[in-house]
Amino acid sequence: MLENTTIFSKNLITWYLEFGRSLPWRETKDPYRIWLSEIILQQTRVAQGLPYYLKFIEKFPTIHDLAHAREEEVLKLWQGLGYYSRARNLHHTAKYVAGSLVGIFPNSYGGLVKLKGVGDYTASAIASICFDLPHAVVDGNVYRVLSRIFGIQTPIDSSAGIKEFKALAQELLDSSRPGTFNQALMEFGARHCTPQQPNCEHCPFATSCIALKTQSIKELPIKKGKTKIKKHYFNYIVPIDPNGNTMLEQRKGKGIWQNLFQFPLIETKKVTRLELLTKERDYQQLTSHWEIESLIPFYPKQIVHKLSHKELNTQFWVAQLANTLEKGTPSREVHNFPVPILIGNFISEFSLFND
User: Fold this and answer.
1) Which of 49, 90, 115, 156 is placed for a possible disulfide with 40 were both Cys, Cβ 3.0 to 4.6 Å?
2) What is the pTM of this model?
3) What are the start-end ranges of the H helices in 60-151?
4) pLDDT score, position 34
């Protein structure tokens, strides 16, 4: 190892105590609040996650409050954060802890990692921050910091890389202050050793950083390969009847938008025109009982919504109806439903839903 572990830990924590951000979840050791913050911050930047954390704490100040909420209520509050399985797992675990564990979180890594939606990283974070247990965290920030300082070439998305980085983080961990060390390492990656333009000039590890010495900062960390992005072509049909009612349906089955609501969806193999869309079998089945006066695309061209592994090329088609929808949703109530941000943006831009 290039640097004595005690010196590494001391330099890191010294930097953190001077430059670390003041955040609400850093002012408590309450497992509920730490767990909530960690779930929200999975694959989410602090700037984006902080308002959601504050909203959840205001609405659900205790694990019991969250447990007693309806899933739709939780999904609605989560709307815009993406990766909605986190919200469903959050609600599931809240009900389990509040019920089976009478509101008391497990106080061991082994107990925490068994909770739904809690993996090695989150269990290590809660165990170290709340219970001072010596479990190192490894996330994207940690991969970047350690790969650069120690010049590690092992791909971070390989089984060998995952083991190597975990072992190194564990070796570096200050067991007397594990929670502070873990937060310091994550903060250092988020604010100092950033993906682009890291502050190498004022880095406490500048004299020993292998990436800096070898000018390989941009190349680290290494990944085996990128996930192939699949393109999808979504056509949402937005019916509007004479009473101003529309139609929302809940997505069933597995998927990132499970249990969220959407307008009827027709998926095509490529960007489609009006005359081709109306020939689709799914469209004809959907509209068989509708008396359509007009069908107009809302956007001048398809909008592109990018997810981690998908690219959604999407159009919203507004269908004015002459007949009344059975079990239609009043336009004034559309905002109450939890929907993907893609649909939420359309709702906020469509004048009928904002009168």
Assistant:
1) 49
2) 0.81
3) 63-67, 71-78, 85-99, 109-112, 120-131, 140-149
4) 97
Cα torsion 57, 109, 29, 82 to 10°: value is -30
Verify whether residue 38 is a known catalytic residue: yes
Q: How far apart are CA 200 and CA 217, in angstroms?
A: 10
**Which CATH superfamily hosts domain 5-219?**
Hypothetical protein; domain 2 (1.10.340.30)
Count other C-beta atoms under 10 Å from residue 328's C-beta: 17
Please name the residues in contact with 243: beta carbons below 8 A apart, sequence gap of 6 or more.
324, 328, 330
Question: Looking at beta carbons, which pairs linking 115-119 to residues 24 or more positions away fall under 8 Å?
Answer: 116/89, 116/92, 117/39, 117/85, 117/86, 117/89, 117/90, 117/92, 117/93, 118/35, 118/93
Distance of CA 268 to the CA centre of its chain: 27
Q: Where are the domains of the chain?
A: 5-219, 230-354
What is the helix, strand, coil percentage profile of the chain, to 5? 45, 15, 40
- Angle at alpha carbon of residue 112, lines to 109 and 114, rounded to 5°: 115
Alpha carbon distance 286, 294 (integer Å): 15
Tokens read off for 206: 């500048």
Q: What is the pLDDT of residue 226?
A: 67
Gap between the Cα atoms of 181 and 176, Å rounded = 9
Q: What phi, psi does 293 have (nearest 5°)?
A: -90, -35
Q: Which two tokens stand for residue 69?
A: 């909420």
Q: Which residues in the chain come in under a pLDDT of 70?
A: 1-4, 226-227, 355
Residues in the chain: 355
Q: Which residues are CB-contacts of 141 (< 8 A; sequence separation ≥ 6)?
A: 185, 186, 187, 188, 189, 190, 193
The verdict on domain 230-354 having CATH code 3.90.79.10 is: yes
Q: Give the number of other Cβ atoms within 10 Å of residue 271's Cβ.
A: 14
Catalytic residue among 3, 38, 71, 72: 38
Task: Compute the CA torsion angle 277, 282, 284, 289 (nearest 10 deg).
Answer: -130
- Cα–Cα distance measured from residue 191 to residue 20, given in angstroms and rounded to the nearest whole number: 9
Q: Reduced to 3 states, what is the DSSP secondary structure of residue 71?
A: helix
